[in-house]
């Protein structure tokens, strides 16, 4: 499997595991994942979906 066959979320998870972390992807909470690399700089942008009013707001 090449990088182009993987989803952006899979690539993101692979990068995080490579640096010794872990991630649980709440796909329903993510609007989009943007991964870009220029030289040695890796930029990851996670865009979160807006929660509807009345949703569980215990997460702060």
Automatic annotation (TrEMBL):
Keywords: Plasmid. It comes from the Bacteria. This is Uncharacterized protein. It comes from Methylocystis rosea.
């Amino acid at each position: 499997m090449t990088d182009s066959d993987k989803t952006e979320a899979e690539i993101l998870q692979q990068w995080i595991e490579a640096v010794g972390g872990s991630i649980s992807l709440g796909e329903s909470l993510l609007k989009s994942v943007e991964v870009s690399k220029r030289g040695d700089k890796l930029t990851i942008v996670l865009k979160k979906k807006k929660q509807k009013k009345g949703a569980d707001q215990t997460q702060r």
